Amino acid sequence: MKEEVAKGIRMVVEEKTRKQVNLKAMQLSEKIKLKGEKATDEEVKKLLKLLC
């Protein structure tokens, strides 16, 4: 009985941890994407200054 309860608790904790890791990964991915877009925008502005 104790083993079954412990197994159930482990499953819940693992699922919660997995969801937290997935959420953090998505947030980090979005931050990286935004930084990339900002860097690209800055490079385009530099090129436009050189051309104009």
UniProtKB/TrEMBL annotation:
Protein name: Uncharacterized protein
Originating organism: Solanum verrucosum
Lineage start: Eukaryota, Viridiplantae, Streptophyta, Embryophyta, Tracheophyta
